[in-house]
C-alpha cells in the first residue's frame, strides 16, 4: 500500500506549533505556513509534502529587496555561507532579494530542539544581516516594506470617502 505525505505534514505542523506556541514572536499564517519575528527580520516556516511519506520544513528569511547583486556582495555572502552553522545566503533575481534559507526534515524524526536551534541561528543572522546588506548594497529590509505597506493602507483608508463625509 503506497504511503502518503499527509501524515508527515500533520505531525510536522503539530511539532512546530507545540514548540513555538508560547512565543509572542510566533504566528500561524495559514495551514503549513508560519512566521517568527526577530527584531526587524521575519523567518517564514513552510511545511511541504515530500516523497511518499515525508515532509520538509523550509525556513526562509527575506533580508533585503531591491538589492543590486555585485561580485563583491556575492563573494561576501559565499564566505559567510562557509562559516554559518545553519542555512545559506542566496539571491532571488525576481525582486532583487537577498535571502537566508535552511531546510529541515519533517515528520516523526523532527524534534523541538532541532526546530529551535535552526530557527534561532537563522533569525539572529537575518536580524543582523538585513541591516548590513541594506547599508552596503541598498534596498529595503522586510520591516521597512511592511511599515511602508501598512502606512499606505492607512492613508488609503483615510483618503477613501466615508458615508459620514457625505452631508
Automatic annotation (TrEMBL):
Protein name: TY-Chap central domain-containing protein
Classification of source organism: Bacteria, Pseudomonadati, Myxococcota, Polyangia, Polyangiales
Pfam family, one: TY-Chap1
Origin superkingdom: Bacteria
Domain TY-Chap central: 11-144
Amino acid at each position: 500500500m503506497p504511503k502518503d505525505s499527509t501524515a508527515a505534514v500533520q505531525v510536522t505542523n503539530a511539532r512546530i506549533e507545540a514548540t513555538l506556541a508560547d512565543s509572542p514572536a510566533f504566528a500561524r499564517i495559514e495551514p503549513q505556513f508560519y512566521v517568527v519575528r526577530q527584531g526587524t527580520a521575519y523567518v517564514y516556516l513552510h511545511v511541504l509534502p515530500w516523497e511518499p511519506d515525508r515532509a520538509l520544513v523550509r525556513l526562509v528569511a527575506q533580508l533585503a529587496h531591491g538589492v543590486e547583486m555585485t561580485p563583491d556582495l556575492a563573494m561576501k555572502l559565499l564566505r559567510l555561507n562557509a562559516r554559518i552553522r545553519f542555512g545559506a545566503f542566496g539571491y532571488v533575481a525576481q525582486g532583487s532579494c537577498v535571502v537566508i534559507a535552511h531546510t529541515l526534515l519533517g515528520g516523526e524524526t523532527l524534534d523541538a530542539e532541532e526546530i529551535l536551534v535552526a530557527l534561532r541561528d537563522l533569525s539572529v543572522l537575518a536580524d543582523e544581516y538585513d541591516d548590513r546588506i541594506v547599508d552596503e548594497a541598498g534596498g529595503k529590509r522586510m520591516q521597512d516594506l511592511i511599515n511602508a505597506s501598512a502606512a499606505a493602507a492607512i492613508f488609503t483608508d483615510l483618503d477613501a470617502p466615508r458615508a459620514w463625509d457625505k452631508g
